[in-house]
Specification:
The chain is 46% helix and 13% strand. The chain is built from 22 helices and 16 strands. An eight-stranded mixed beta sheet has the order 1-8-7-3-4-5-6-2. The chain has an eight-stranded parallel beta barrel with strand order 9-10-11-12-13-14-15-16, surrounded by four helices. Bound molecules: phosphoenolpyruvate (PEP) and magnesium ion.
């Protein structure tokens, strides 16, 4: 019997949902210690250069072998990441830096590799962008691989794990995870990483629970410790007490039952018992997510955040690259529609190769549509590709951060020119392509009636709309307590937008995080939102709730909410109402 009274609970980022309880397997990735050897003769230098060459070619061969393996297992995500790592391995700058270090500093091959990789990797330290941060870990992996090949030291092979375990590591590369036996490996827990890190992508592809970004988890866990991993809420409990273990075992059972039940809803219509339909769509950032769009029964893609195409590279994507990706997305999603949002750069999404002036207030600066209307050639390249892809299925185009009429008129003028060019060049496209705008700035809400006359649909981006309405930086943890989607002002705003849209005969989508949160569904239903677009993993739960609350009830709920003046009162009331209908699910 465990005599401890407290468990150790760590909070990270839940990137692949589900609960697991099991023994930890701590991956040993201590840094390789080296002592620098100084070279005296040209022959020694030549010898060390030869060792680098040999190690580079061995590293490439090993990665190609891993690639073959993952392709065999049809894990496309990993194959894609390994391609990116091979590119780094062949990068001229990396190789030149290593060889120059050997020649000029007259040091051995291993020290030169370690030195070069440390410098390259350090240059990524101050980058806020999660995607670019991932390139840092690619460089680190590649560095370690070359180093191990030079020194003839093997990396711990995780495919040899035979006992059911949860992998605990600083970070994991696709080369580590691709060969894992999923019957043995129950989940991943890592110090580093974010929602789009390799470990996260792989965990979702393998459908095993995972929590990343735990910072020091490898320091707190020993191999064979019992741990609980809750990938849904991003929590890891280390060496749980008997009571926690019992509670979590029950929670796990309940969760698994609910999950199983949810799949019953996959092919059922997303409508209330009194026949009110809300279309449920998926938000995606990567082409790799397309499989979950279909798996969770989305009726299309309501938001494709195309800025992710611009990240993780040194140059801008060409029209052809945009076109090929959009064509692939629509072909896979057809007959359902796809909404492509044009580049939403800035705020917390930056590109290293686009030199934006430093701004005091980047969230209110030259971002999204403002940037595109300034750098109009970048905008036109993307728009032309979007138009071309509209010949292959129902593509809609969505413009982010619209603050007023002027921007729409400018966009429409550009679109007109591009359509005329394509027509002249006899390139097929849909001349009736639907255009929509993100409603995420309060000024757009105030003149929503005017804007509604110019576009085919609105898409409410609650992540930014709440940020700008309540003046809360959405990534600042000190003010996050104020970030409340049930703030009376937000409810009124949504109401204004829906009324303006409907009285002008256009539809309203909601694509911010609020759309995927079950607690808010009755409110959104009552407000008359036509479509909800969310992380595909949220769709089934939302559908389940939708199918058990009538439109009539939601109207009554909305009337009752009108009496409350604070977000806390509204939230308490909605929770109470939801708990009556779904006991235990909203506590
Ligand atoms: C939003 O602001 O709600 C939104 C969907 O866009 P993003 O999160 O990409 O800013
Ligand atoms: Mg936004």
């Amino acid at each position: 019997m465990d005599s401890r009274e407290n468990d150790l609970l760590l909070k990270g980022i839940g990137v692949s949902p589900g609960i697991i309880i099991g023994k930890a397997f701590l991956v040993d990735r201590r840094e390789i210690e080296l002592s620098t050897i100084h070279l005296n003769t040209d022959a020694e230098i030549k010898h060390e250069l030869g060792r680098v060459k040999q190690a580079l070619s061995e590293s490439k061969q090993q990665l190609l072998n891993v690639k073959k393996e993952v392709e065999h297992k049809k894990i496309k995500e990993a194959s894609y990441i390994i391609d990116a790592q091979i590119l780094i391995l062949e990068d001229k700058l990396l190789i030149e830096n290593i060889t120059t270090t050997i020649k000029e500093k007259k040091v051995d091959a291993a020290s030169a590799v370690k030195d070069t990789v440390r410098k390259l990797s350090k240059s990524f330290d101050d980058i806020g962008d999660e995607y670019l941060k991932e390139r840092k870990s690619d460089i680190d992996y590649i560095g370690e691989r070359i180093l191990r090949n030079i020194l003839g030291r093997k990396r711990q092979d995780l495919s040899k794990i035979k006992e059911k375990s949860i992998i605990v590591a600083h970070d994991l590369s696709p080369a580590d995870t691709a060969n894992l036996d999923v019957d043995v490996v129950m989940g991943f827990v890592t110090n580093s990483g974010g929602k789009t890190s390799h470990t996260a992508i792989m965990a979702r592809a393998l459908e095993i629970p995972s929590v990343v970004g735990l910072e020091k988890v490898t320091k707190e866990i020993n191999s064979r410790d019992t741990i609980i991993v809750d990938g849904t809420i991003g929590v890891v409990i280390i060496r749980p007490t008997a009571e926690t273990l019992r509670n979590y075992s029950e929670k796990k059972l309940r969760y698994e039952q609910l999950e199983k039940e949810l799949f019953k809803y996959k092919d059922l219509p997303s409508e209330t018992p009194d026949g009110y339909h809300i279309t449920l769509l998926a938000n995606i950032e990567l082409v790799e997510e397309l499989s979950s769009v279909l798996e969770y029964g989305a009726e299309g893609i309501g938001l494709y955040r195309t800025e992710f195409l611009y990240l993780n590279r040194k140059d801008l994507p060409s029209e052809e690259e945009h076109f090929n990706i959009y064509k692939k997305v629509i072909e896979k999603t057809s007959p359902h529609p796809v909404t492509l949002r044009t580049l939403d750069l800035g705020g917390d999404k930056f590109l290293s190769h686009i030199d934006l002036a430093e701004e005091m207030n980047p969230v209110m600066g030259l971002r999204a549509i403002r940037f595109c209307l300034k750098e109009v050639n970048i905008f036109k390249t993307q728009l032309r590709a979007i138009l071309r892809s509209s010949a292959f299925g129902e593509i809609k185009v969505l413009f982010p951060m619209i603050s007023g009429m002027q921007e729409i008129l400018q966009i429409k003028k550009i679109l007109k020119e591009l359509k005329a060019d394509l027509k002249r060049e006899k390139i097929p496209f849909n001349p009736q392509i639907k255009i929509g705008i993100m409603i995420e700035i309060p000024s757009a809400v105030i003149i929503a009636d005017l804007l509604a006359k110019e576009v085919d649909f609105f898409s409410i981006g609650t992540n930014d709309l709440i940020q700008y309405t309540l003046a809360i930086d959405r990534v600042n943890e000190h003010v996050s307590y104020l970030y409340n989607p049930l703030h009376p002002s937000i409810i009124r705003i949504i109401k204004t937008v829906v009324e303006a849209a409907h009285s002008n005969g256009i539809e309203v989508v909601m694509c911010g995080e609020m759309a995927g949160e079950p607690l808010y569904l009755p409110v959104l239903l009552g407000l008359g939102i036509d479509k909800l677009s969310m992380n595909p993993l949220c769709i089934l739960k939302i559908k389940k709730i939708l199918r058990s609350i009538s439109y009539h009830e939601s109207q009554e709920l909305l009337k009752a909410i009108d009496f409350f003046k604070t977000s806390a009162e509204i939230e308490k009331f909605v929770k109470k109402e939801m708990n009556k209908r779904f006991p235990g699910e909203f506590e």
